[in-house]
Amino acid sequence: MSELAELFDRPDAPQTPAYLYDLDELARSYAALRAALPTPAELFYSLKANPHPTVVAGLTASGCRAEVCSPGELHVALAAGCDPAEILYTGPGKRDVDLADAVRAGVGLFSVDSPYGLDQLDRVAGEHGAEVRALVRINDDTPAPGQGLTMTGVASQFGADVRWVLDRPDLFGPRGHVRPIGFHLYMGSNVDGEDALVAQFTQSVDTVRRLAAATGVQPELIDLGGGFGAPFARAGGRPDLPKLADRLTALLDDAFPGWPGRGPGVAFESGRYLVGTCGTLVTRVLDVKRSQGATVVVLESGIHHLGGMSGLRRLPPIVPDLVTVDAAAGPPVPGTIVTGPLCTPLDTWARSAALPPLVPGQLVAVPNVGAYGLYASLVAFLAHPMPVEVTVAGGRITGVTRLELTRHTVIGSDRG
């Protein structure tokens, strides 16, 4: 953590709390994932992991396509230089106004979850004189093992059940302004290891073959999703996937003879693996005290800066690793309670952490929070300032920005 100390312990240092994004590590993560995928294969970056403009621009320049699921993400992707015709617009429910904005911007590929979704997209595209392509998202029969968050094989807003498509393929066919070109499958996120990844992709490929045989439609493109795991708020590096490319190439060769010269194009998605290890949250200790026999450490950051969804108990609570930045670590103090500054007892990162003695004003850092860090937190809760976001390349700061929430009048209060 000496590099962080050099960046933040000087008069002109960025304010804290700060999310720091290491663009060199971002490039290494992209190279590692591309090497782990078969050639050729498309790679989409899922902006929901981290839509910071510099992060998106870096991945776009490297060759990633963008997967977006909101007007805000679309705006960031376009500003980052993404070709709108190459953007994939996803999401289980889409407003007409958002589809219209995407069509007008030139987005050419949509993931659609139901026959109504195809009808809606057809209507909006027709109103704008556009022709668009669609991937039919599929909810497979059974979930695949080894997932951190299951997104298929259960009753879900994501995708059309396999049996529905097999029984009524006519519902998922072409419309006047929409041409379905293949299928989109996403089994789950944060998949544990190479074997589990191969198992889920094998299941998805088998499902695509079943659908193609039943419907008589040979897909032009199949999006097999992702789920490539990476550590979150804990120390450690991204997983190595040394044999994945060869194993996936063999899978596709067997499933689609003649691939890649013949057969469908194949795409994968990633957010967590690409950006997770490039991010670090740097924050300061505000207070240290004893309460009911325990040491309590109060930080600048809490669930409004990291782990907001788990803070609401929507997900298992996170227990982030804290690393001292600006002082030598003493022997750990067991049973330390780590909290943020919010006026709620839910603002707790740990109830019994083993931390070195800390003092007010000291810098600490949470590693591996480049994905689902700031952008999956309760940033509007209690109106604390958002952290600054710092980009670094070659050990030098290349940019410092801060998001702010502002209120605008949409309809005047004096309207008649």
TrEMBL record:
Active-site residues annotated for this sequence: 343
GO molecular function, one term: diaminopimelate decarboxylase activity
InterPro entries the record matches: Ala_racemase/Decarboxylase_C (IPR009006), De-COase2_CS (IPR022657), De-COase2_N (IPR022644), Orn/DAP/Arg_de-COase (IPR000183), PLP-binding_barrel (IPR029066)
The UniProt record lists the keyword Transferase: no
Keyword tags: Pyridoxal phosphate
Orn/DAP/Arg decarboxylase 2 N-terminal domain span: 24-275
Cofactor(s) needed for function: pyridoxal 5'-phosphate
GO biological process assignments: lysine biosynthetic process via diaminopimelate
Modified residues annotated as N6-(pyridoxal phosphate)lysine in this record: 48
One matching Pfam family: Orn_Arg_deC_N
Gene3D superfamilies the record matches: Alanine racemase (3.20.20.10), Lyase, Ornithine Decarboxylase, Chain A, domain 1 (2.40.37.10)
Statement: the UniProt record of this protein carries the keyword Phosphoprotein: no
Protein's recorded name: Diaminopimelate decarboxylase
Organism, scientific name: Micromonospora peucetia
Source taxonomy: Bacteria, Bacillati, Actinomycetota, Actinomycetes, Micromonosporales
